């Protein structure tokens, strides 16, 4: 079987499928021989627990509403012992060597098909009951085993196949064991894709139904450049993919040789290249890969384990301090949390899913409404700033009023530290420009911000009204739309006129084919996934700023993204390592 999607993180990965669905609640993978009996025992224990629970529920309903309503639980109790359910799952565990959850799910699918074929409407309706019983069994399986332990000794390498993959789930995985990611949903600027590029894991997103059609344990070959996913490829094809994998590694090694060369254009203009980092562990690799600093630390990834409640001021201080230590004097720009209420872990129950509300309470506006969380983060940042050149950056700023409120919060945090007797060094405070209203008021913001960083991922989404996480509209997500080029020019001019440094930290900066254009528009600082830095260096070192400026003025006259793209291709027909930008 051959599936295809959007290649969102380059490289090639080969491994066995570990299937994750419904926000990591369903986990399906192949287990080693020595764990087969353990899986069967787990299923047995889950059946016993489910039986006890169903009996209790039945008694309660019997007392409260009478036996007419309690009878359905008799049916569920019978299903627990039906040979076509748990016993069938046991047989699947033995035959296919998959985990108990996976076997149960397969048994459920088989039974559901039988019920669907039944003529009797009563029988057809029983499908819901079996689903209910399987849901209970799965819940009890999980209650008996923490997720980390579940695939502790599963044979690797693994390809994680998921319907949706939250960055917080990825952050907790042991990446050494993950050969690639494949997701049903997602796009180029989806946070999991960004994270995959940062941690050098090949990834393909937008592969419709991958998590349903790929069996747990199937051998997969994933190409993050072409977006191709091969399921159980025949030996000759596999050998060809392996050759591609070795080639990719060799290319990476030869690019790494560029890492320590200065990023200076052929005509002598210095370009600053920094790294976007989601996890403090990546800092050393970024520095070694040639990053002059961290241009964007997405601090919200610190929340992955337990939300704001599990992350106090001291824990954050340690994390920021570690980043500064790892960068050995290189500048570190920490962006305050850019999350939704649900991700902060403090919102009302059921206050949303794991994605950021695109027009709702997120970013700075969320921080401003959770004062304690914001103050703790600002105190931690100001304390850490004693150890190196740290900058504070606010996400999702829409205008001067918000910036003023945020700066007042910084002053308050500094005051709190001073009353504790701590010294607070001056810390530059800047903002992301990622909302059109900020771009349109850049001259006003420049009076009060120490620096700007352009977040093209959101800026494109809000300027073009295209949801960056929705693969159905990814065709419309055009970084080269004339509106985007104009808005970039507006920001650069506004910032330069007032002497405020401006960089780009959105994914546009990581596309080597777009770098000449961005430099031509007047930008001199960029922050990108560490893996993109060596190629960016190569592009910079071959570029003349005068040519880039000519290119920009030509491109700004183009009427459509396609015209822009054509002009760019003429300028640089074979950009090295080009990954086309996608939504
Ligand atoms: C952006 O919006 O371009 C950006 C860098 O931030 P994020 O991708 O985290 O929204
Ligand atoms: Mg953003």
What does this structure look like?
- Helices cover 49% and strands 13% of the residues.
- With 583 residues, it is of the alpha/beta class.
- The strands form two sheets. Strands 1, 2, 3, 4, 5, 6, 7, 8 and 9 form a nine-stranded mixed β-sheet that branches. Strands 10-11-12-13-14-15-16-17 form an eight-stranded parallel β-barrel, surrounded by six helices.
- α21 (515-520) links the parallel β16 and β17 (525-528).
- The longest helix has 30 residues, at 36-65.
- It binds phosphoenolpyruvate and magnesium ion.
- Phosphoenolpyruvate binds next to β11 and α19.
- Residues 296, 298, 338, 434, 455-458, 505-506 line the site of phosphoenolpyruvate.
Please specify the SSE layout and strand pairing.
Blueprint: E1 2-4, E2 6-9, E3 12-21, E4 26-28, H1 36-65, H2 67-80, H3 83-96, H4 100-117, H5 121-144, H6 147-150, E5 158-162, H7 167-172, E6 178-183, H8 191-198, E7 203-205, H9 210-213, E8 219-223, E9 228-231, H10 235-256, E10 272-277, H11 282-288, E11 294-298, H12 313-327, E12 332-335, H13 341-344, H14 363-369, H15 371-384, E13 390-394, H16 400-419, E14 429-433, H17 436-440, H18 442-446, E15 452-454, H19 456-464, H20 482-497, E16 502-504, H21 515-520, E17 525-528, H22 533-541, H23 545-555, H24 561-571
Parallel strand pairs: 3-5, 5-6, 6-7, 10-11, 10-17, 11-12, 12-13, 13-14, 14-15, 15-16, 16-17
Antiparallel strand pairs: 1-9, 2-7, 3-4, 3-8, 8-9
Helix pairs in contact: 1-2, 1-3, 1-5, 2-5, 3-4, 4-5, 12-15, 15-16
Bound molecules: phosphoenolpyruvate and magnesium ion.
The site of phosphoenolpyruvate (PEP) has 10 residues, from strand 11 and helix 19.
């Amino acid at each position: 079987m051959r599936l295809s999607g959007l290649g969102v993180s380059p490289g090639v990965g080969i491994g066995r499928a570990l299937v994750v669905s419904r926000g990591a609640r369903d986990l399906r993978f192949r287990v080693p021989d020595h764990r087969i009996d353990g899986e069967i025992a787990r299923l047995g224990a889950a059946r016993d627990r489910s039986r006890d629970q169903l009996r209790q529920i039945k008694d309660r309903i019997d007392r409260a509403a009478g036996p007419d309503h309690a009878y359905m639980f008799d049916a569920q109790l019978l299903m627990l012992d039906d040979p076509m359910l748990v016993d069938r799952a046991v047989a699947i565990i033995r035959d296919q060597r998959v985990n108990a959850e996976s076997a149960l799910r397969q048994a459920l699918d088989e039974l559901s098909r039988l019920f669907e074929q039944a003529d009797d409407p009563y029988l057809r309706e029983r499908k819901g009951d079996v689903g209910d019983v399987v849901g209970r069994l799965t819940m009890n399986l999980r209650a008996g085993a923490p997720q980390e332990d579940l695939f502790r000794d599963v044979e690797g390498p693994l390809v994680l196949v998921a319907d949706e993959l939250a960055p917080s789930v990825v952050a907790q995985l042991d990446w050494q064991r993950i050969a690639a990611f494949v997701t049903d949903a997602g796009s180029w600027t989806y946070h999991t894709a960004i994270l995959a590029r940062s941690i050098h894991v090949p990834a393909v997103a937008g592969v419709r139904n991958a998590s349903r059609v790929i069996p747990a344990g199937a051998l997969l070959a994933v190409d993050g450049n072409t977006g191709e996913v091969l399921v159980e490829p025949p030996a000759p094809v596999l050998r060809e993919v392996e050759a591609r994998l070795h080639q990719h590694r060799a290319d990476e090694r030869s690019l790494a040789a560029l890492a320590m060369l200065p990023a200076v254009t052929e005509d002598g203009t210095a370009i600053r290249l920094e790294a976007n980092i989601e996890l403090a562990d990546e800092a050393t690799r970024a520095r070694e890969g040639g990053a002059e600093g961290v241009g964007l630390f997405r601090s919200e990834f610190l929340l992955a384990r337990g939300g704001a409640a599990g992350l106090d001021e001291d824990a954050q201080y340690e994390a920021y301090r570690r980043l500064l230590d790892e960068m050995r004097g290189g500048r570190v720009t920490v962006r305050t949390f850019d999350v939704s209420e649900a991700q902060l872990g403090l919102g009302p129950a059921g206050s949303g899913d794991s994605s950021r509300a695109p027009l709702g309470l997120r970013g700075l506006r969320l921080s401003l409404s959770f004062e304690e969380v914001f103050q703790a983060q600002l105190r931690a940042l100001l304390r850490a700033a004693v150890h190196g050149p740290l900058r504070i950056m606010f996400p999702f700023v829409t205008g001067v009023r918000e910036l003023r409120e945020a700066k007042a919060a910084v002053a308050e945090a500094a005051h709190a530290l001073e009353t504790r007797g701590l010294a607070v060094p001056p810390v530059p405070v800047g903002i992301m420009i990622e909302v059109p209203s900020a771009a349109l008021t850049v001259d006003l913001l420049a009076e009060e911000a120490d620096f700007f960083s352009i977040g093209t991922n959101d800026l494109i989404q809000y300027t073009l009204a295209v949801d960056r996480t929705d693969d159905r509209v990814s065709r419309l997500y055009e970084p080269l739309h004339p509106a985007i080029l104009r808005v970039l020019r507006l920001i650069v001019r506004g910032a330069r006129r007032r002497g405020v440094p401006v960089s780009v930290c959105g994914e546009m900066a990581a596309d080597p084919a777009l770098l000449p254009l961005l430099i031509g528009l007047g930008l001199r600082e960029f922050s990108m996934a560490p893996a993109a830095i060596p190629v960016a260096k190569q592009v910079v070192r071959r570029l003349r700023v005068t040519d880039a400026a000519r290119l920009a003025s030509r491109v700004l006259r183009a009427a459509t993204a396609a015209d822009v793209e054509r002009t760019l291709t003429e300028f640089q027909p074979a950009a090295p390592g080009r990954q086309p930008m996608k939504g």
